[in-house]
Amino acid sequence: xxxxxxxxxxxxxxxxxxxxxxxxxxxxxxxxxxxxxxxxxxxxxxxxxxxxxxxxxxxxxxxxxxxxxxxxxxxxxxxxxxxxxxxxxxxxxxxxxxxxxxxxxxxxxxxxxxxxxxxxxxxxxxxxxxxxxxxxxxxxxxxxxxxxxxxxxxxxxxxxxxxxxxxxxxxxxxxxxxxxxxxxxxxxxxxxxxxxxxxxxxxxxxxxxxxxxxxxxxxxxxxxxxxxxxxxxxxxxxxxxxxxxxxxxxxxxxxxxxxxxxxxxxxxxxxxxxxxxxxxxxxxxxxxxxxxxxxxxxxxxxxxxxxxxxxxxxxxxxxxxxxxxxxxxxxxxxxxxxxxxxxxxxxxxxxxxxxxxxxxxxxxxxxxxxxxxxxxxxxxxxxxxxxxxxxxxxxxxxxxxxxxxxxxxxxxxxxxxxxxxxxxxxxxxxxxxxxxxxxxxxxxxxxxxxxxxxxxxxxxxxxxxxxxxxxxxxxxxxxxxxxxxxxxxxxxxxxxxxxxxxxxxxxxxxxxxxxxxxxxxxxxxxxxxxxxxxxxxxxxxxxxxxxxxxxxxxxxxxxxxxxxxxxxxxxxxxxxxxxxxxxxxxxxxxxxxxxxxxxxxxxxxxxxxxxxxxxxxxxxxxxxxxxxxxxxxxxxxxxxxxxxxxxxxxxxxxxxxxxxxxxxxxxxxxxxxxx
Amino acid sequence: xxxxxxxxxxxxxxxxxxxxxxxxxxxxxxxxxxxxxxxxxxxxxxxxxxxxxxxxxxxxxxxxxxxxxxxxxxxxxxxxxxxxxxxxxxxxxxxxxxxxxxxxxxxxxxxxxxxxxxxxxxxxxxxxxxxxxxxxxxxxxxxxxxxxxxxxxxxxxxxxxxxxxxxxxxxxxxxxxxxxxxxxxxxxxxxxxxxxxxxxxxxxxxxxxxxxxxxxxxxxxxxxxxxxxxxxxxxxxxxxxxxxxxxxxxxxxxxxxxxxxxxxxxxxxxxxxxxxxxxxxxxxxxxxxxxxxxxxxxxxxxxxxxxxxxxxxxxxxxxxxxxxxxxxxxxxxxxxxxxxxxxxxxxxxxxxxxxxxxxxxxxxxxxxxxxxxxxxxxxxxxxxxxxxxxxxxxxxxxxxxxxxxxxxxxxxxxxxxxxxxxxxxxxxxxxxxxxxxxxxxxxxxxxxxxxxxxxxxxxxxxxx
Lengths: 675, 464
Fold this sequence. Notes:
The complex is a heterodimer of chains A (675) and B (464). Chain A folds into four domains: 2-15 and 293-450, Gyrase A, domain 2; 31-258, no CATH class; 498-609, no CATH class; 619-674, no CATH class. Chain A contains 21 helices and 21 strands. In chain A, strands 1, 4, 6, 7, 8, 11, 12, 13, 18, 19 and 20 form an eleven-stranded mixed sheet that branches. Chain A has a four-stranded mixed sheet with strand order 2-3-10-9, with no helix packed on it. In chain A, strands 14-15-17-16 form a four-stranded antiparallel sheet, sandwiched between helices. In chain A, helix 8 (370-381) crosses helix 10 (428-447) and helix 13 (515-523) crosses helix 15 (541-558). The longest helix of chain A has 24 residues, at 270-293. Residues 1-16 and 75-85 of chain A have low confidence and may be disordered. The longest helix of chain B has 16 residues, at 159-174. Chain B folds into three domains: 8-81, SH3 type barrels (Roll); 101-308, Rossmann fold (3-Layer(aba) Sandwich), CATH 3.40.50; 316-429, 3-Layer(aba) Sandwich (Rossmann fold), CATH 3.40.50. An eight-stranded mixed sheet of chain B has the order 9-6-10-12-13-14-17-18, sandwiched between helices. Chain B has a five-stranded antiparallel sheet with strand order 4-3-2-1-5. With 464 residues, chain B is of the alpha/beta class. Strand 5 of chain A pairs antiparallel with strand 4 (65-69) of chain B.
């Protein structure tokens, strides 16, 4: 009977257990291919299709809308009951609104306004940085999303550039296309049939950079993410910070299919995720072959049936299988009949998988098995999300009376020794959907790897998010006219562009800046300021400016001073002054603090008021007096200690007015003469 | 050569001559290389004639469209031909003998549709089979028959369509349907609902007008839910009047049934755009119940005899009064042979003094002038101020709280019967379908203002 494999984990690794992270030979052997879709928010004042402010996030709301997404007819395909079932198990979608950052456009109650020209400009700049050819006429398309992340049910998006390339590891990383699009909502919660979205981010312009499938190892993926990020950020016209850039990583192996790991938050996560997905695909292909050997080749070969077994568990030691416990769960979790809850009374449903014994525990990823693939589908599509989501006969839990209960179950379902059983529970309709999903996922397994979008976890594992849509979900946006992009516009934008980061990196490196500082400058936009104040390659200011914007201001920020309000002209003014009075650089901290506190004052005036750049009259005499006076703090100290102590005292008044080297030299002289 | 057969559909001028020169056409699957060396592979799409004549539009393999400037094309090669086929799959609408019979009359709006993914063209779903494909829930509600009367945008509805629609309704009722649904564009749905309220009187069954504010090719469309609500109202509702069925709130919650003479489109794009003015709506309708909130309506009664009276005179207009309006406007209307003028007056029904002689002359020459209020809410009470009393003396007919558009429709209908001043006046003031109500309930005027604490509390705690 199926229960005999209880508690059994994966007994023998089916062949790919040797896979180790970073084993490039392994990746070559399995034919790992990966490409990126990098999303980067653009720095504009307003959103892309309406006049709402961009980048204004809120944590509260002052209104909400309830909507549903209905598959449009062409997506239904055939009109068997499945389409209607999909609609009946649909999500209730709630959008939280705040007057400060959304208008009726985001609510899908007003058609789009003309596209934000500034967003197109920044997108063109990005395309130029990525080496792309700019399209002549931009056509806004609608890309359908039925998960509710966009209230219209589609994202407005348009290709701006094609056919770019970046230097990468001595070869080229191709950029297939760059599109400009509106950002989606942020998910607040997802429980049962209710998903809640916050709309503040919705409609902000971003670009999606799609690379060719050129990456061959997990490390290359991480490196490419960083490279594309540096290129995008080098104009200073994109947003930085949490959520401002996100990437989807596409992975496939030889014989597999493209799977999209969605929303990888940082490059550092990528190697583990790519590795684990590659392993998953290899193991799913092995499962396919294994199933074929056991005679399962077509969906018709599968016999998967199900039955209501609520009564069998009415007195089970597993309390969550009792109707009363379910009611209590519903009550405590605040699940409402018309929002979170599915249709029908509480039901425990058993699914019999005929002849499929041992396939549930087929290993897929480290610590994951095929049954986890089913769990993901059931959670997302059937909306059954009470842990542990399902029970199954290949690892039936141990509890009082477990053997007897499993025995009853086997008898009721008429399960044979080669069968496996799954148990799900919740509202009746949802349990039926779950049973059907089990059948659908097994049918997919016969074919190998379903095209899926998967959500990433820090441990490198992933879970089902949704079926990956194809090109059929794209169609023209009849609300927006095409925008012609003239060559004059492109050329004008090209003139204002900085060097590409690799050129800049070399220039900075030659000036003596360390790589970490360079990357930080490019990533966080400081390089724009460096190039502003030290534009010439041979300028000695470059290294100093690089350290100031790449390192020193970090320390200042940590101590609570914010230099963000200091404008470009003030920085230029400051550097003009410093070129004339290099000794004043030593008082950079005091100067920048004053500038931050007085953003409207001229840095030259500030410096002059602080006396910087001009030595106080008779300072040499003052220094001599200091050196020859008593040094009560260090009466027995060495000459070196005395020098350090007196330098500190002297520089309090002389910093930025007399070069420290000069002060130091004179002080040594005085101290020598003193003895 | 007809538009449909033009192999370069929509292309003009330079782009057209280049396409001819290159020997490619709309639906050619091409490999195009531009002067920068970029390769574009996809299908040439038809171009909107309102766009410029400099670009050729390609649908790329990944579904995106781009326009390529014809001067930047280095080479273009046809590798195939993929014409879009505009066909909507159909499945027979199931017949269930115990369900009510409903007929859907089509006027041209697309209630349900399928999208052509390549061109973005919306293909209307209209036959029962097509509708069943798009909104399968309909089969659980009724046995549906559809009749396409004409295909016009709602702004192009006029006399011929109103008459044909009223007569088609009469035939369907004679044929014994349990209810009628009329698919209609939303822009002038209020006008059509008003005229039908006069042309179709004493209906034994519900006549429900429906449309959508977001087209049905969008996943978030209100079309399907509106259609479900309307078909339910026609099949099971108790209100045997001409009514408009559209979203109550903008959320997917319930529909409102509005009386045909008292309803107006109040927002250019919101889903909840239709509002009853000067009264409360008749009922709410949801997927599984009705709530009759008004309390007064003509109930369904199969034994009642319908009266179809499709008279219509389209020599009528609305004059929306504004300060400083010149009397020669009125003169011009008289000269051009208009038979009736609805004035949407200020306040309680006023216009400026310089207009009086022109209005007097118009009325004396046989033009009928009636007064509604541009405030929409409230009554024309012309006896309150001297200006109003002067207008009454001239012969301007006050229409109390009849909505201006309803007044226009009624005047057109009345003038289709008679142009006798006394008779026109009598008919205009004789209430047929609540177009004038004797009392305005205090909750019939509710325009909540945002920003007030109590209103903010309401909108944060209720679905918008």
